[in-house]
Amino acid sequence: MISRKIRINALISYFFLGWIFLLAKNNPNFTDPFIKKHAKIATQGHIIFLVSYSLYSYFFGNFFSYSIPVIQITLTHVIDILFFAALILFIIWGVYRGYKDDNPLENTTNTPLSFFLNGHTFQFSGATEAERVIFLVSYIPFLGMIITKKYPNIVTTTGARVSSIFWFIYLVSFVNNGFDSLSMILLFIGILSFVFLAARFFMSNTYIIPNFFNYIPDIDSIYRIIRSIPSYIKEVSSMIFGKNTTLSFVDNIKNVKNKDTILQESLQEYFTDKTLLFQSFWIFIPFFNLIFLPKLFTCRTTQYVLAIWQGLVITLLAIIIGLLFSFTSPLELFLLFPIFYGIASIETNVFVRIPLLYEIYAIINTLTFGLLKNTKRIQTIQKQDTTVSFKME
Fold first, then answer.
1. Per the CB 3.0–4.6 Å rule, which of 61, 94, 293, 366 could disulfide with 14?
2. Model pTM greater than 0.85?
3. What's the CA gap between 134 and 292, in Å, rounded?
4. What is the number of alpha carbons within 13 Å of residue 318 lying toward its C-beta?
5. Where in the chain are the domains?
6. Beta carbons of 169 and 145 less than 8 angstroms apart
């Protein structure tokens, strides 16, 4: 087995230090054949990147100055990003190989005691290579939503929350100012953080969860809190006028959660048809989801009734943004949040209610006097659940 010190020196060479290690022939800390092997690979990779990127920028960069719709950046910027993405992947690969060579990381097996949280430190000494990749992928924007639903733990949950917040801030900056210096700085911070996490997950068996991350609520919690506000305001009004003496925002949140549980159970009893011509994730893809519209008229008990209507709302919003601004407007990128939230949730909750989309669907249904297909049954169930929930209080 190669010592930990030698492994660390080997993987450090991929951070543009390989050529220094090769020159330090008389330094005993860098003369090990394992370090020299990785330093040579790192130096060759960095030289290839530097030469190819310099040649592209000098001779071909001016030929790709065309603007790409929606994301509104030039093709030159995209190629630049791809160049540096390739460099980042090379560094991640090098860090992984520097740690993994002759180390039975891929042979470890997950046991019930492999993962546990000790204070703010998540320990995963028995994690396999695939599990470590899952930890890392959970920090990729939007993909983290899917990962945390399939593999829920403190790392993936934190990754989904942090990456969603970061991407939202990035989109706000990008929509307001385009691909300017601030967007470039945020993108650089995101890439640098991802490389750091890759090294962290593959170099060590522990991951420290910053304390303030614990206070970041997930989308479901935020959604319940927002829906609890109207009933809480009603209680405050009743207390002011002497009609009520008790007041608890927590109880309102619990009441909303109880209503959701009862509604879920009631919908499962009536909407029992599970057949679908295509994979369920296509329901949330704008315009493509129009092919599911006949399903609402041919089957009154389809389990996907709420999902299809909310998917159609996504398409409606895409059309409205396109007509008011442009179909190439970067505002369309904000629709990625409900799209991936729906895709991530539908496998575990076929009656998923996507924040804002469900409210828009309910408003449209109200304005059409409940004429939308398959919604009268949902309205009846909701009224029954409200009565039951009121009795539970």
1. 94
2. no
3. 32
4. 21
5. 1-102, 104-216, 219-392
6. no
